[in-house]
Amino acid sequence: MLARVTTFSLDGLDTSPITVEVDVRQGLPVFVIVGLGDMAVREARERVRAALQNSGFEFPQRRVVVNLAPAHQRKGGSGYDLAIACAVMMASGQIPEDSLNGRAIFGELSLTGDIRGCSGTLAVAEAAERAGMRGLIVARERALEARVVEELDVLCAESLRQLAEILAGGERPPFPSPHFPPPEPSVLPDLSEVGGHSSAISALRIAAAGGHNLLLRGSPGTGKTMLARRLPSILPRMTRPEAIEVTRIQSVAGLHRGHGLVADRPFRAPHHTISASGLVGGGARPTPGEASLAHHGVLFLDELSEFNRSALEALRQPLEDGYVTIVRGQRAAMLPTRFMLVAATNPCPCGYGGDKSGRCRCTAADHARHARKLSGPLIDRMDLVVDVTPPSVAELRRGPVTDSTSEQQVIQIARYRQEERLWDTGAVCNGEMDSRILHDQVKLDAHARRALERYYEDGKISARGRDRALKVARTIADLDDEPKVRARHIHEAMAFRVGAEQVEAAA
Predict the structure, then answer these.
(1) Could you tell me if 235 and 348 lie in one domain?
(2) Are 152 and 246 found together in one domain?
(3) Domain closes at, from 392, 415, 433
(4) Which CATH number goes with the domain that contains 96?
(5) Is 174 contained in some domain?
(6) pLDDT in tens for each of the 507 residues of the chain?
(7) Around Cβ 462, how many Cβ atoms within 10 Å?
(8) In what order do the strands lie in the sheet with 30-34?
(9) How far does CA 313 lie from the centroid of its chain?
(10) Can you give the residue range of the structural domain that contains 300?
């Protein structure tokens, strides 16, 4: 007897429908799985056999052949277990033939017959809805994640025995509560804990409001990392489409615990020993790297000069395009990388270059060698560069300059202005504007135009730097609720790019 059920394969963030065909016929007892499955798929034979027998079902003592179609496509992972088991039960007459019509199946089996959740459940649920499936069967622990796709009828079960009873017409178990298991509360560091650093906080405000890249330079202990880790607390709240994208990526990467949508923007801070593939993605089966895990959030590179040069160079294209394409043999996966890059670095090898203490003993050659460690094209892609210096005693006595709640409100209003202006362009904030959108949407008065042209003619910025400075100036204007970019906005943007001294000299 032949039975067919539908499941889905995962390749990066992409999904494709897989038909699980099971043929049970007379012959020597054998259980064969064909269709270019990896080791996890081949091992499903033992899991499925044990799960069926330990759940009180009969495993057919006949010739059982499982085909995963299309046969030319490579398959991997343990998410095929439940589909194979259901197809075997259907082919052997242990569940009704029409009980799975229009339903996709995705889940792993334990040897006792318990149904376990799999990474990528949300991506599979979205693919099932696009494919016109009326429902999806998943593990109970992943039900809330799958239910994010509201148009899909999600059926969850804890065990193979329970699922068979439901498919035979039994009562569905109650859906898991949105608060079970309870998510851990997210407590973000707040700007109210920072004394002084008014210039750096101003740069954080602009970066968060426009989605711009930020470089923090300064001696050890001046507060670079402390400031960077407080950036997520002032970022605007994620929209539902953004939250779905973030949840999908984290689910595929195995970082999501199935509580529904992720609420907080990602903040990823990889160690400087990370490889290029770890940073942008890769592997035999393409998987998201840190750049994709930071999608719609922040990628923080502390001690930038210590990162491998090849890893930093690999970030150039994802920063510019907002996605990265990973090609491995016959596989190609496109992964989203729309993140804010925040980096921190010391000014020289010893870290105290330019410090008032005079502790720096680095030579000119040491400074040149340190500068060569940093990728020039990557530095050119940083919209804001801030020299972080220790706050004075008076600033520390005065206490915090601001707090995250009030800053987030100001930033949220600036983002609303950007959304209204960019609603039909495909960009959601100033940092995402390409050259065409930039020149169509950003209006400058005559003084601002002349100021920007003078900086470019004097060689203080490149052509790319000119566009990036203009994006920052537009964000500053949004924070000031100005419809046009003024000269003061250009000067402030340039001060964060080339330094206040050069701006004063040019002015």
Answers:
(1) yes
(2) no
(3) 392
(4) 3.30.230.10
(5) no
(6) 799 999 999 988 889 999 999 999 999 999 999 999 999 999 999 999 999 999 999 999 999 999 999 999 989 999 999 999 999 999 999 999 889 999 999 999 999 999 999 999 999 999 999 999 999 999 999 999 999 999 999 999 999 999 999 999 888 888 877 654 444 446 788 999 998 899 999 999 999 999 999 999 998 888 999 999 999 999 999 999 999 999 999 999 999 877 788 989 999 999 999 999 999 998 777 889 999 999 999 999 999 999 998 899 999 999 989 999 888 766 778 899 999 999 999 988 888 877 777 788 888 888 788 877 787 788 888 999 999 988 888 888 888 889 999 999 999 999 999 999 999 898 999 999 998 999 899 999 999 999 999 999 888 888 888 999 999 999 999 999 999 999 999 999 999 987 655 554 455
(7) 12
(8) 30-34, 63-69, 14-25, 2-11, 103-105, 135-139, 153-157
(9) 19
(10) 191-198+211-392
Q: Are residues 27 and 111 in the same domain?
A: yes
Residue with tokens 């790319």: 464
**Is 459 within the bounds of a domain?**
no
Residues 6+ apart with CB under 8 A from 209: 410, 411, 414, 415, 429, 475, 478, 479
Interior angle at CA 227, CA 217 and CA 219, nearest 5: 30
Give the pTM: 0.90
Same domain, residue pair 143 and 223:
no
